[in-house]
Amino acid sequence: MDGEPAQPSNSSWPPSENGSDAQATPAANLTFSSYYQHSSPVAAMFIVAYVLIFLLCMVGNTLVCFIVLKNRHMRTVTNMFILNLAISDLLVGIFCMPTTLVDNLITGWPFDNATCKMSGLVQGMSVSASVFTLVAIAVERFRCIVHPFREKLTLRKALVTIAVIWALALLIMCPSAITLTVTREEHHFMVDARNRSYPLYSCWEAWPEKGMRKVYTAVLFSHIYLAPLALIVVMYARIARKLCQAPGPACAGGEEAAGEGGRGARRRARVVHMLVMVALFFTLSWLPLWALLLLIDYGQLSEPQLHLVTAYAFPFAHWLAFFNSSANPIIYGYFNENFRRGFQAAFRAQLCAPPWGSHREAYSQRASRLLRTRVFVEVQPSDSGLPSESGPSSGAPRPGRLPLRSGRVAHHSLAAEGPGCSHLPLTIPAWDI
């Protein structure tokens, strides 16, 4: 190792702010660190893990956006909020996952000052928008189930709420974006495998006073994690209590009414289960990262402890937080049949082209035809996922449509099969419309 390392001629590194040269400093006062923080096997494990959640995030959330935007019957208030969650997750995948992975593999910050600010701002705004959206979903479900006779939230009001959510997210993260900066660490250099040295840069929040960072971290933790999630817990607890106290179907309707009422109750419970799982998974995924941030600011860690937390704990905590952005579409597909059928239709369209046209007609237009005719079941124009209180309407079935069986409307016209592809009749639960 040379006693007087030379500054590399690499234009991708930010320029030195003070113009100092390492050659003017005695070698005894210099600190050298490895260019890469981890060995090759550990680095490969991090790369595979981050690439996996990146692909899941991109594919899953893009499909969620496609399903909600391309199918008119999916444009409900709750699904608009779910669409907003998917957009925030996509921003995390695009702007945060790649830079965080590289930052966790290389000692120091390898990008410029603009990327430092952008990555921190987008990640902070995304998590803020996500938790505020979860609160909005909980409030909307609370109003629909606990207070069903109050005025429902319209699509226009939902879009205004989403705009307010992003404005609040930007407002609360502005201090972080302003203070984030890239600075060069004096007398500290990185050394690669070929014994070449590089200056060390760090992306950090340069607050005027050290105590201000602690206060800001506490404010963020209380406003975009602790208080909103406590409110969500209260809301869903009230919803669960209301569902448990809901009376059973009237005896006058006979067994058919009892069956419809039971399916409606199960449908309501399944919707709430999906939303609770989204909120719970968000809470658990971001908890380790928040714990580490509080530990860094208030724990007074020693240098070895700080290195251990930075090199190993933070990469895992970031991965777990980012995994939340990848898992939400999986939760939607598991609990919600509309999303599950939308995913199936999208993948089926990639494997084989149906002879009767695109999958968009099979998925979206069948619901619109049902809404226009209402031959078998009348559905309330609400996105709460609840069945209508009225029973099946009378009338002869129209061509291409089977009578209602087990709450489903089937279409004979969609059962065409192409060579090598089996297109099952696409059905949609009547109470999902």
From TrEMBL:
<keyword id="KW-0807">Transducer</keyword>
<keyword id="KW-1133">Transmembrane helix</keyword>
<dbReference type="GO" id="GO:0008188">
    <property type="term" value="F:neuropeptide receptor activity"/>
</dbReference>
<dbReference type="InterPro" id="IPR017452">
    <property type="entry name" value="GPCR_Rhodpsn_7TM"/>
</dbReference>
<keyword id="KW-1003">Cell membrane</keyword>
<keyword id="KW-0472">Membrane</keyword>
<comment type="similarity">
    <text>Belongs to the G-protein coupled receptor 1 family.</text>
</comment>
<feature type="transmembrane region" description="Helical">
    <location>
        <begin position="42"/>
        <end position="69"/>
    </location>
</feature>
<feature type="domain" description="G-protein coupled receptors family 1 profile">
    <location>
        <begin position="60"/>
        <end position="332"/>
    </location>
</feature>
<dbReference type="GO" id="GO:0005886">
    <property type="term" value="C:plasma membrane"/>
</dbReference>
<keyword id="KW-0675">Receptor</keyword>
<dbReference type="GO" id="GO:0007186">
    <property type="term" value="P:G protein-coupled receptor signaling pathway"/>
</dbReference>
<dbReference type="InterPro" id="IPR005396">
    <property type="entry name" value="NPFF_rcpt_1"/>
</dbReference>
<feature type="transmembrane region" description="Helical">
    <location>
        <begin position="159"/>
        <end position="182"/>
    </location>
</feature>
<feature type="region of interest" description="Disordered">
    <location>
        <begin position="1"/>
        <end position="23"/>
    </location>
</feature>
<dbReference type="InterPro" id="IPR005395">
    <property type="entry name" value="NPFF_rcpt"/>
</dbReference>
<dbReference type="GO" id="GO:0004930">
    <property type="term" value="F:G protein-coupled receptor activity"/>
</dbReference>
<dbReference type="InterPro" id="IPR000276">
    <property type="entry name" value="GPCR_Rhodpsn"/>
</dbReference>
<feature type="transmembrane region" description="Helical">
    <location>
        <begin position="121"/>
        <end position="139"/>
    </location>
</feature>
<feature type="transmembrane region" description="Helical">
    <location>
        <begin position="215"/>
        <end position="237"/>
    </location>
</feature>
<comment type="function">
    <text>Receptor for NPAF (A-18-F-amide) and NPFF (F-8-F-amide) neuropeptides, also known as morphine-modulating peptides. Can also be activated by a variety of naturally occurring or synthetic FMRF-amide like ligands. This receptor mediates its action by association with G proteins that activate a phosphatidylinositol-calcium second messenger system.</text>
</comment>
<keyword id="KW-1015">Disulfide bond</keyword>
<dbReference type="GO" id="GO:0032870">
    <property type="term" value="P:cellular response to hormone stimulus"/>
</dbReference>
<feature type="region of interest" description="Disordered">
    <location>
        <begin position="381"/>
        <end position="402"/>
    </location>
</feature>
<feature type="compositionally biased region" description="Polar residues">
    <location>
        <begin position="7"/>
        <end position="23"/>
    </location>
</feature>
<keyword id="KW-0325">Glycoprotein</keyword>
<keyword id="KW-0297">G-protein coupled receptor</keyword>
<dbReference type="GO" id="GO:0005929">
    <property type="term" value="C:cilium"/>
</dbReference>
<keyword id="KW-0812">Transmembrane</keyword>
<protein>
    <recommendedName>
        <fullName>Neuropeptide FF receptor 1</fullName>
    </recommendedName>
</protein>
<feature type="transmembrane region" description="Helical">
    <location>
        <begin position="81"/>
        <end position="101"/>
    </location>
</feature>
<dbReference type="Pfam" id="PF00001">
    <property type="entry name" value="7tm_1"/>
</dbReference>
<feature type="transmembrane region" description="Helical">
    <location>
        <begin position="271"/>
        <end position="296"/>
    </location>
</feature>
<feature type="transmembrane region" description="Helical">
    <location>
        <begin position="316"/>
        <end position="335"/>
    </location>
</feature>
